[in-house]
Design a protein that fits this description.
17% strand; three-stranded antiparallel β-sheet; seven-stranded parallel β-sheet; alpha/beta; binds 2-amino-2-deoxy-6-O-phosphono-alpha-D-glucopyranose; Rossmann fold
């Protein structure tokens, strides 16, 4: 695990975007695993800038997003599909049909999970999976539990997660109670993982995830078992690391 700490957000965004851009420059047919939340936005903005400056093209890239809320109407501002379109896809040259986000409005959600896994297994292996980190150690929407799921599955969101995400909605009542998420098994299959964490409020969970015991109680701690993880931290998030 390669842990890098940055003085400024700009430097962190630049390095995160450069790793992704160089993958795509080396292999234009890369498969990217993408994440939502506030954490990756600066990296996406830097990728858009590099695209606009002609440094990288996403024409042949395929993407798979980690997760999606269940039950938000199509086009809802806080659906992860809308987020990805607004924050990245609408500003680069990736064809929309090469982008994948689980469908949280599928009539049969279990069938949707199976078909998402099916699509991922028929595609090439994910070259890079981008991850943020929840305050309780979740990755994607894999919440702490006695056991974790390997593949894409339906989850009941923890109250803590709904509270953390309520800042994006008018009130907590509007935050969905369920989501579809890739499983930890799927995430760990990626050739490379970039975990990005910012802020003092995540310093203690960063320590647990990176230097604590490997436990399903902190899903991100399973990243310690992967051989190619780059962790990008601002100095606040790195504050409790030894
Ligand atoms: C959300 C997402 C995660 C994200 C995390 C942190 O619930 N499902 O993929 O990493 O919470 O979000 P943020 O980056 O806004 O702190």
């Amino acid at each position: 695990m390669n842990i890098l700490t940055f003085e400024t957000n700009e430097e962190l965004n630049q390095v995160g975007a450069n790793i992704i851009a160089s993958l795509v420059q080396t292999n234009p047919y890369s498969v990217l695993g993408l994440a939502t939340g506030s954490t990756p936005i600066g990296i996406y903005q830097e990728l858009i800038r590099q695209y606009q400056n002609g440094l990288v093209s996403f024409k042949h890239v395929t993407s798979f997003n980690l997760d999606e809320y269940v039950g938000l109407p199509e086009g809802h501002q806080e659906s992860y599909r809308t987020f990805m379109n607004n924050q990245l896809f609408n500003h680069i040259d990736i064809p929309m049909e090469q982008t994948h986000v689980p469908n949280g409005n599928a009539e049969d959600l279990h069938a949707e999970c199976l078909s998402y896994d099916e699509m991922m297994s028929t595609s090439k292996q994910v070259d890079m999976q981008l991850l943020g980190l929840g305050h309780n150690g979740h990755i994607g929407f894999n919440e702490p539990d006695d056991t974790l799921n390997g593949g894409t599955h339906l989850v009941e969101l923890k109250e803590q997660t709904r509270e953390a995400n309520a800042r994006f909605f008018n009130s907590i009542d509007e935050v969905p109670t369920q989501a579809i998420t890739m499983g930890v098994g799927t995430i760990l299959k990626a050739k490379m993982i970039i975990l990005v964490v910012r802020g003092k409020d995540k310093a203690s969970i960063v320590k647990r995830a990176l230097q604590g015991p490997i436990t399903t109680d902190c899903p991100a701690s399973l990243l310690q078992t992967h051989s190619n993880v780059v962790v990008l931290l601002d100095k606040e998030a790195a504050g409790e690391l030894q």
